[in-house]
């Protein structure tokens, strides 16, 4: 099994990168998880990352208390931002399906996730509830990034309006609205070699005609995944996996 991943301070990783063989101290919530939950002990291997592409591989040299350990760095590497960048605009699902969507899209390899307040969403993010829901999505992405051994975690943006989603599509090298009546299979759509791909996943009730018009006027294509209709919480993951294979990012 590969070494577990934990978040570390960017400054410490930058310092370690400048002096390979240095020591990084992991403490606080991440240190507590490593010591008290994972029960890491001296001699075990570990990976530290800032979640922004820099990672340090090392060995635990000392453990103290319930939330502090020291790691001797053996190697440091930095991942460049992958191309093409894949952003999934996810309409707000019901219940905990939003966290499920974020978790699986992160594990699959999405680069950015944008929660979208579609007109047919049953769930509404307003006030304190909205802030808590966004915090849950970001926490889910962080934990899924660690679980899947990623060095670069996906960005989870603020809640977007339909107008803001239209701007994302307008700026993308390829904008796609997943739709069961799409005129083109996503498996055969022409893909850009660089720039960004933006995928829009509608809510349980579907993308409204007005929203679809706004998105196509912004340059988006309507594409279908296959003969079956996926839930809103799984469509983004399936589409991301398809694109990662087609773009060569899974080679």
UniProtKB/TrEMBL annotation:
It comes from the Bacteria. One of its GO terms (cellular component) is cytoplasm. The keyword Manganese does not apply. Residues 83-243 form the Ribosomal RNA small subunit methyltransferase E methyltransferase domain. It catalyses: uridine(1498) in 16S rRNA + S-adenosyl-L-methionine = N(3)-methyluridine(1498) in 16S rRNA + S-adenosyl-L-homocysteine + H(+). InterPro entries: Alpha/beta_knot_MTases, PUA-like_sf, RsmE, RsmE_MTase_dom, RsmE_PUA-like, tRNA_m1G_MTases_N. Keywords: Cytoplasm, Methyltransferase, rRNA processing, S-adenosyl-L-methionine, Transferase. GO terms for molecular function: rRNA (uridine-N3-)-methyltransferase activity. GO terms for biological process: rRNA base methylation. Its EC number is 2.1.1.193. Signal peptide: none annotated. PANTHER family: 16S RRNA (URACIL(1498)-N(3))-METHYLTRANSFERASE (PTHR30027:SF3), RIBOSOMAL RNA SMALL SUBUNIT METHYLTRANSFERASE E (PTHR30027). Specifically methylates the N3 position of the uracil ring of uridine 1498 (m3U1498) in 16S rRNA. Acts on the fully assembled 30S ribosomal subunit. This is Ribosomal RNA small subunit methyltransferase E.
